[in-house]
Amino acid sequence: QSALTQPPSASGSPGQSVTISCTGTSSDVGGYNYVSWYQHHPGKAPKLLIYEVTKRPSGVPDRFSGSKSDNTASLTVSGLQAEDEANYYCSSFAGDKEIFGGGTKLTVL
Amino acid sequence: QVQLQESGPGLVKPSETLSLTCAVSGLSISGPYYWGWIRMPPGKEMEWIGSMIHTGTTYYNPSLKSRVSISMDTSKNQFSLKMSSVTAADTAVYYCSRRPGYFFDYWGQGTLVTVSS
Q1: What tens digit of pLDDT does each residue of B48-73 get?
Q2: CA triple A46-A107-B90, angle to 5 deg
Q3: Which residues of A touch B95 (CB under 8 A)?
Q4: Which residues of A touch B62 (CB under 8 A)?
Q5: Is the Cβ of A99 closer than 8 Å to some Cβ of chain B?
Q6: Phi and psi at residue A100, in whole multiples of 5°?
């Protein structure tokens, strides 16, 4: 399986909502409810935002939400804040391994 | 507070073996979770390398399986990665992480390994 497809960039103004897509196939995103999302500020440890498509770990604000339709998963960031500016990566179980998207750089205008 | 810290040589020669260690604090690696490695080559997507649980069960990315080995030292609360016969394509930032399910909840900050003569 090849990498998952994410848009290279996304942007929004403070307070707005932004949705980042993650497209795979029926062998990964579409075949399992095991999509996760990570926020990464360069030079720091990536942070888990969403797991199993929609679940949020404790401590992650409810401004972050996940969903899935067929072979595409989505991460929505509501009420954008300056600190949300980062790289976002999706991941999915793909039968015999985990695979990742190429990442989306979110800019808060 | 859970912390993972990668360590190892930042420069490895082609055809040699890359060796990295991940020291874990704030959590025992002897628990019922998998621990493992992920890498991100420059300009490319992240790639899962493999995971291991303290019972000895390991899972490796099929594309890397022939060159990769993960081991654990529960007495030191750390685990290690060895990747043999490296090439320039193995140049990447290497992250250690915990895998409690089909996701990764704790990560290290990453360490850059460059393969070059």
Answers
A1: 999 999 998 999 999 999 999 999 99
A2: 40
A3: 45-46
A4: 96-97
A5: yes
A6: -125, 160
